[in-house]
Specification:
Elements lengths: L8 H4 L1 E5 L5 H12 L2 E4 H8 L1 H10 L9 H6 L3 H24 L7 E4 L5 H4 L9 E6 L1 H10 L13 H26 L2 E5 L5 H11 L1 H4 L1
Parallel strand pairs: 1-3, 1-4, 2-3, 4-5
């Protein structure tokens, strides 16, 4: 991983990682409005702005330019394989996110949030583990989110077996989140479990307290 940071943005950044559907984006937006900081939404850039780089990377490595067949990605696989492939792909995708962040200049910290901002990738950039926090949903809260969030309730691809695809996706997300939690604890990075007992504003209070020295 290159250490280039021409504007000192990475050194001042704050990071929220964790499981899907833990409320990372919602909490980040609350903190942005409260504290006047800029938020970088990893998921948006990863799914849209980095598509050209993804295609170029595949072509460079002799792979088809088109996205993989949805059947092979979501149905004809196992959650364990999906999780392993997802985790293995995070380092390259993280480099693309860092390129985005290096280009930003702000008098306030940049808050970067997203499931691909993995503890093991972010840790070498930190001068203190307090610059990062991992939000992870309990199994019960994940089920709640799947029921109430339209984008969480189904796989956004046409496949032959939507129920199996969704089961695979849910279990993959759990495995990827569990990996982030284990890694964060090994690195001394705080993990905040989200169980639905507090609303987003209350969770934002906790995260703001954690980031307190950098938000003052």
């Amino acid at each position: 991983m290159t250490t280039l940071d021409p504007f000192g943005t990475l050194g001042q950044a704050l990071w929220i990682c964790g499981g899907q559907w833990a409320g990372k984006s919602t909490v980040s937006r609350i903190l942005a409005h409260r504290h006047g900081i800029t938020v970088y939404h990893y998921d948006f850039h990863d799914a849209r702005a980095h598509q050209d780089r993804r295609i170029a990377h595949r072509v460079h490595n002799g792979l088809p330019a088109a996205d993989p067949d949805p059947e092979s990605v979501w149905v004809d696989t196992t959650p364990e394989r999906m999780a392993a492939e997802t985790i293995a792909g995070f380092p390259l995708r993280f480099e693309w996110a860092l390129d985005d962040l290096r280009a930003l200049v702000s008098g306030r910290p940049i808050l970067a949030e997203g499931w691909g901002l993995r503890p093991e990738l972010v840790a070498p950039l930190l001068d203190s583990p307090r610059r990062m926090i991992v939000l992870v949903p309990t199994d019960e809260f994940r089920e709640h989110q799947l029921r109430v969030l339209p984008r969480a309730g189904s796989v956004a691809h046409r496949v032959s077996d939507t129920e199996r695809a969704q089961r695979n996706r849910i279990e993959r997300d759990r495995l990827v989140a569990d990996d982030a939690v284990r890694t964060a604890k090994d690195l001394g990075i705080r993990v905040l479990e989200i169980d639905g007992s507090r609303d987003a504003e209350a969770i934002a209070d906790v995260v703001a307290e954690h980031f307190g020295p950098y938000l003052a």
